[in-house]
User: Fold these one by one.
Assistant:
Number 1:
Amino acid sequence: MTVYESDLPGVGKKHEVELGDESRLVIVTHNTGKREVFRRESADSDSEKLFELDDKLARQVGTLLEGAYFQPVRSGDIQTLLGEDTLIEWVEVEEGSEVAGQTLGESDLRQVTGASVIAIERGDEVITSPGGDATVEAGDRLVVIGPREACRNFVDLVEGS
Amino acid sequence: MAGELLEFGYLFAVVAVTGAVALRLGLSVIPLYVVGGVVVGPHVAGRLDLPYVADGEVVALLAELGIVLLLFFLGLEFSLDRLRAARRNIGRAGVIDLAINLPLGIVIGLAFGWSLVEALLLGGIVYISSSAIVTKTLIDLGWIADPESEPILGTLVFEDLAIAVYLAVVTSLVLGGGGAGNGGVAAIGQSLAIAFGFLGLLLVAVQYGTGLFTRVLDIENQEAFVVRTLAVVIPISGAALALGVSEAVAAFFVGMGFSTSGHRERIERLLTPVRDVFAAVFFVWIGLGTDPMLLGAAAVPLVVAVVLTTPAKVLSGYLGGRVYDLSTHRSLRVGVGLVPRGEFSLVIAALAASGTTQVMREVIPAFAVGYVLVMSAFGTVLMQRSDLVERLVFRGGATESSA
């Protein structure tokens, strides 16, 4: 992502954010504190004003966008952070998932993703430290530990995306 | 005393009403304040035997404060660092703007048989765009988010610097007796030497006095903050004027000094209303001194100036936009965006009015008022309908190149 900053003498500052396609988000911050937000379709088109906010409201909205109040998580996943980069994550195994019906040894999840299954929740039952011969069934909830990246791979694989 | 207070009440009521009209119509307040001043002044309301606001010394003094504060704020926003950072683009676009529009105004003045100083005054009036009106229109139209706003605002910054130098020179020429044509080279030389001596000292003080400026304003209390700021700006400007040096330029330099003090934003927040009150009085005062009958004498120069300087400004702005590597479409908008003239043309008119010749005292101020009224409205309309301007210009260009 590239952000372009320029001075607007007598007005304030302008920041332009590339949105990935041709378009850019343009944020004009007035010296008075007012923010105006525009979207420019392409380099040659005129910016369309989306909305404006006063200073206080802009800060509140900015905090929301930053994720201070709510960090989006994939549905069904819960995670806990251990240290800088290690997560414990709960992953639902849905009907039709690649790993359903296989033993942990067969799906070889630890080798493939780098994250380990430390428990399987099945209804009220909890299988702790499951071995390679433990079978994963649809409807199970797997408790997984590993680096963030590994957990992400794990979730992708189990959810089949 | 009672009568004067009542007159002042009248003046501010006019400001409030014309301001409300401007807000309602989405126009800049500047031309409407001026028109309001003309209507309630001695030349219209006075002649109709209605209650009117006299063009007295007290109004003139408050208007003077308006000029000082306008230029002080210009200095606050002006930063040498900013100019240095974008020197190449701002410099080239600004020089093109200066090199086309100022000489054009001077030539128009000379063509009417005016003296060099008179022609120089006309040049300044038609050269300088209105920061207030242009910036407001940029925001209203949303151009502020598009690339054309950068060369437009950059050119305005360059004009600020140019007008500071210009006012320093021309004030000395007008007040130093050069305008009468019999002051002689020595007198002009002397007044210029005083001007540049004083302003040079002030500039040095401003450059090295940042610490002092910072300490003076290092205070929590808002009232003390506002009063201290005024207690620096007004005495220095007053001392300048007492020496025959431009009070406006002195205020500009003081503003520059405060801009690096770390208090800039607080000054802007707390003193903007103060500036706006006195600036409003200044615009009304300009109207008070304008005799609509004299507009007749200025009509021919006015029409000639509008017809010639509008395309010249569009052209210089267009070339400036090309310096910034903008497309022809956006460059044309830069040109159109610089057409509105306003407050600084009127500051120059106020300077001319203190001159010695009949052209300076009567014709140029009337000309400036007419010119600002036309160009502020016309410039804004051109910006709003820039699509039409574009079709007109580029269709003309296409037929030319095909012919």
Number 2:
Amino acid sequence: MEDNSQQQDTSTVKPPVTSVGAIGWVRTNLFNGPFNSLLTLGVLYLLWISVPPFVRWAFVDSVWMTDYMACRNIDGACWSVIPANLRFIIFGFYPHDLQWRPLLAMIILVVMLFYSQDRKRWKKSLLYLWGVALVIMGLLMKGGVPGLTPVESSQWGGLPLTLLLSVFGLASAYPVGIILALGRQSKMPVIKSLCVVYIELIRGVPLISLLFMSSVVFPLFLPEGVTVNAILRAQVAIIMFTAAYIAEVVRGGLQGMNKGQYEAADALGLNYFQTMRLIILPQALKIVIPPSVSILISAFKDTSLVVIIALYDLLKTTQSTLSDPKWMGFSAEAYIFVALIYFVCCFFMSNYSRRLEQELNTDL
Amino acid sequence: MKLFKICLTLILTFIFISSATVMAGTLDDVKAKGYIQAGVNGDLFGFGKPDEKGEWKGLDVDTARAVAAAVFGDASKVKFTPLTAKTRFTALQSGEIDVLTRNCTQTLSRDTALGLDFCQVNYYDGQGFLIHKKLGVKSAKELDGASVCVLPGTTTEQNVADFFRANGMKMNPVVIENTAELAKAFFAGRCDCLTSDASQLAGTRAVAPNPGDYIILPEVISKEPLAPAVRHGDNQWKDIVNYSVLAMINAEELGITSKNVDEKLKSTDPKVKRFLGVSPGNGKALGLDEKFAYNIVKQLGNYGEVFERNVGTDTPLMIERGLNALWTNGGLLYSAPFK
Amino acid sequence: MDNVSSEKTSFFRDPDKLALFYQFVVMVGVGLLAFYLVSNTLANLERQSIATGLGFIDKEASFEIGESLIPYSAADSYGKALLVGVLNTLIVSFIGIVLTVILGTILGVARLSSNWLVSRLSAVYIEVFQDIPVLLQLFFWYAFFYEMLPSPRQALNPFTGLFLCNRGMIFGVPKWHSAHGYMIVAFLVACVIVFFLKRWAKKRQEATGNIFPVFRVALLLFLGLPLAAWLLGGAPTEMNAPRLSGFNFKGGVSVSPEFAALLLGLVLYTAAFVAEVVRAGIQAVSKGQTEAALSIGLKPGQVLNLVILPQSLRVIIPPLTSQMLNLTKNSSLAVAIGYPDFVSVAGTTINQTGQAIEGVAMIMIVYLFFSLSTSAFMNWYNKKIKLVER
């Protein structure tokens, strides 16, 4: 063996063992220098004391499909809290035997999202497809057509409500945000100042104050006897909130436009609306797609605040389950489950926005 | 800016299309829409909380169902809106809900300043303290310097502060909006004691990891008559809610239960006959079906049945009737005669 | 306009008139909407005889607040209770911002580290903490604090003067002594000296090229002067140590679990975003800059201080500002875990007085004030560092 390898060494010169292969990788990436070596050891130690106990708690000592009695005397996680209450956590008050409908609606949404990922499919037809999909999802949720029993929107809850509030919120906030951004760029002082005041006002206050507004103050704004459904009120608050942030993102896109574009449009004799619709917005909106996705992500996370005004979104249904005497005390398990749902959704979206950013970058 | 206007109009129309108008009296309005919208707690086991299937359960929930049974003859024609302590009165004032059955304490200032009227009390409560045995505390007067978990509510915070001040003691409150979160914090030892209405204390103790370790201190520091509320000024609707609650109490007084109510229809007792609508008059006077009381008892049972089903000794709450027993049994329940 | 055509320009063709017209229409529209809402509100308040106005501010609050920077009792007014809330919000936001910037910078630098393990872990951290709603994180941390730590009677006592239990972290502080006053004065003096020293050193370097070791001298001054003052003041060592009495610890300074959970949740969440901001800022400085700086003989520390940081700060400051504002606004979620911040106190006030409009308006105005003043300060700072740039 010795001989053989030495013979090989003379024919093809290999790099030193210590810079290639597993050892070499470890050396260059983990132990290049005393500081890094110390850092690596410290981090490894931290992992060593934190990961094994967690694994033991979550997987080894845990129970998965039992009833609540079996959870009383174990050291590990009681994941049973999730399967036992899954349908309520996910669907809230939606009638039990009709829950295939929101499920189907969510599947359609996910399929549509996956389908629209590919930028080659971004055409007018996709927009129409989305319109059709949204109508179908709405019909599935609400019912009221032959064959589907109507379900009040006050009975919507859980994950569909979270998705509805965020996706529909962003979809409706977008046009409002664009109008606000254009208004802020406008030369008309009244409109400009109105838009500036609105945007700064909304961006200066926490969402929770707007939600309080929608739940305790807004009803007083309406004439006697007129009421608006609580979900819709929260939805309007989320739209108002998101629109201000979108306006700022779109403004960034508008400011990124070359001045020549405006001048060229003027030279062609286009009026303001034509300039915006045909020249400026299509280009500006393309620039702002990645930041818009991050707004969608934060809108998705922010919908969890409706817990505070007692709407039964995903987080609230989970808490409601946890206030049941049978399942009280297993909050870590339930919260981890919900965190996982949020994480998967947001991770998917943020990865996508990053990829998109790269693709669009190379285009320019 | 045409776009702007169009959007504004669209948004406004959108809002108004999806809004319902309640201009007429509540009864007509409720009959027109075919159901009652009731405001409930949502987090309070035994009073108002959905179960695993999303079905609403609880004493307050059943009170609202009783009103539906009285109005429609069908206890299921009611929809529930979960409300927080903050949103509950606004929801009633604005007409979003028709009746508020959310363990609300009747007080003078609420009755007068908030534009609402309280009806017949459906649960007599009082604020007390729950504490771990090992602290060796025998009386609330020994709680000087304690950390106190305060269940969210409006009078609760004030009562406990008043109690500590009146006795020259210091306290350290921990106030959390969410009932479940607070109970968990208490069991983990975040606070020395938990204060709330006695009914909730019993419920909280029942779900403790080791219920025997906790005791409820003898002091009751407040009176908490929990009553359904309606909007101020609609007397007919107030009467209906009032007599729906009283019907359950009266049924218990008369010994009528959901099981024997059909037999009792044949009773010759004039009180029973009037109550069940066999001799007509009561229903018409309220603007309801003559059989409204029959419907309530048939579908939900009398007060005793409702109590035992939701909060009684066979439930995890294990609450004794106590103040909520009939006056004949040493309690406070005393129905106005149905005549 | 005359030279275009002699005929009168139609009203709808004249951009100036049209602009006026549009503005007029919008103004009337907004005015009508406002009138509609206000008149409805007034009618509703009147009809339901709901009290209005800020009269409640002077009334007795009659509820206790768990923690307060200023002395407060239930006998004080609503106004004072609200002030306690504002101060609580401010303190948690301020400490939160400082810690977030520190942790975020560490994470951002770690993300770019050549150490594979460190950069991977940092990436995982950023991804996980960004993608979970902050409210959920707060619930989680709060549960963590009170479930993991023992009760006061079995409090952990890692070293003298510090106790950890589910009532919070209690630590001893030195008992007040006049020497401590001298120490503060000495520290302030050190600050002034260092300020002038820095200016002098800079001038000298520009004139002669000699570098004065400002950092080391400053450190010496900052530590040495207060120490000297302490010794001269008689070197008091008496501590105000916490001890268990009754239900809880007396004496010392305590940090409640609510405060700790809120702070931890906000810092861990926001730091993930700040890390991304810092990473982007550092990456925005091209690699050639570092190489050039190294090639003219600057040490790595100097490269970071003199070349990279001044440039990347320009990129970092604006998004960092908005993250700071986010942290301040998110501190309003305290209401969910029982920390008596402004929203929580205002919420109790709304509950007790029934005056929702005034309460919500106050919440909005206070946060608006925080936001506007923070962004004003950061804009000023941003301009300042921009001027330094050439």
